[in-house]
Write a structure and sequence with these properties.
The chain is of the alpha/beta class. The strands form two sheets. The protein has a seven-stranded mixed β-sheet, sandwiched between helices. The protein contains ten helices and eleven strands. It is elongated and about 70 Å long. The structure holds 6-O-phosphono-beta-D-fructofuranose. 6-O-phosphono-beta-D-fructofuranose binds next to loops.
Length: 300
Amino acid sequence: MKNIGILTSGGDSPGMNSAINGILNVAYLNNFVVYGIYNGYKGLFENNIKKIFNNNLFNFNNLGGTYLGSSRFEKFKKKTIRLKAINNLKKNNINSLIIIGGNGSYIGSKYLVQEGISCINLPGTIDNDVVCTDYSIGYFTALETIVESIDRIRDTAFSHQSIFIIEVMGRKCGDLTIASAIAGKCEFLIIPGIKFNIDNLINEIKNKISKGINNAIIIITENICNIKKFSEYIKKKINKEIRTIILGHVQRGGKPISYDRILGYRMGTYAINLLIKGHKNVCVGIKNNKFIYNDILKLI
Ligand code: F6P
């Protein structure tokens, strides 16, 4: 009997359910017994593990979030906690894990691999900051949500001749910011890793105003500065109101767009097919439109 466990971990991302679905479809065709590990590594530690039966094959494809639940579980860094989790795997006779998540999930998986558990990782995060892949599951849906929000804010910015600062997620990665700035035609963008000069920005804004352009959108990645204080500083210099919006978790939820459903599903089937062929301890990704895998211990 081949027993596998699936878990989703870290921030949920739209398309995770499609990935689970892809894994399940191939797993059942190949007579695997599949266990759902609920709420990520926390569920592994708490033995929140239940068989997913064939006839329960769900149709969650069109829903955001993750059917299996997720968590951020810092305690998993502790060996004693992991030993209990590994013991739970042994109790359920689970030989292999498929883990869908972001960087934190990959680190968790690396620990498990080093402790003798075989793992395959799939990149699931809106941040698009995971190694070994051009795109992570959920990134394009979040991008769509951000661009839609920019479009809406633009209507008000134009009508009221105002300047908006919009903060978007991405943790330390500017991918969502850059792509949404292009798609939403934002006037200014601020991203991690590229120094910006606030006085230059102010001069640019003044320059635009002098040319009669009196609405603008400044888009900025989270964790760079306090945008409220930032806006107050600019406001004093240009003598014009600036409004701030932190988009927050609306970016993470919602129905996955088709691309993320297909990406998730295909990555899921690719991952379990690797397992069937005897591969283990790899993370999968998409590069130049081809699915690829890499040794997790070499990358993380
Ligand atoms: O990793 C996804 C993400 O949404 C990041 O963009 C953000 O920094 C973080 O998670 C927020 O995490 P939490 O929901 O745990 O506060």
